[in-house]
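Still learning folds. Look over my entry:

…
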Amino acid sequence: MNTETSVEAIAKALKELGHPTRLTLYKRLVKAGHQGLAVGKIQEELEIPGSTLSHHISSLVSAGLLKQRREGRTLYCVPDYDQLNEVITFLQDECCSDEASLDERSADEQL
């Protein structure tokens, strides 16, 4: 992934997670783990109408944050942990790097 695509993908993921219902939904799915949850179970737990839930799931899928799998007649939603880690890594990647540069410059100036 090039830097532009990466920034765009991260921005889209953060945008979709910026909605309270989608954030709640995603957090619940992350808690469920690698097996995910059946859509019916999600709807029951979060008390969201089916059409509304479908809209939120579609948004998270389009951002690459969720995958879906079908087992018979049951549709499961599963977090894409690789994408989640990319978002987290992007946010943490350069954490405090300016401070390190300032510390190095201050040390150089004292010499």
In short: The helical segments are 3-17, 20-32, 39-46, 50-62, 81-92, 97-110. The longest strand covers residues 66-71.
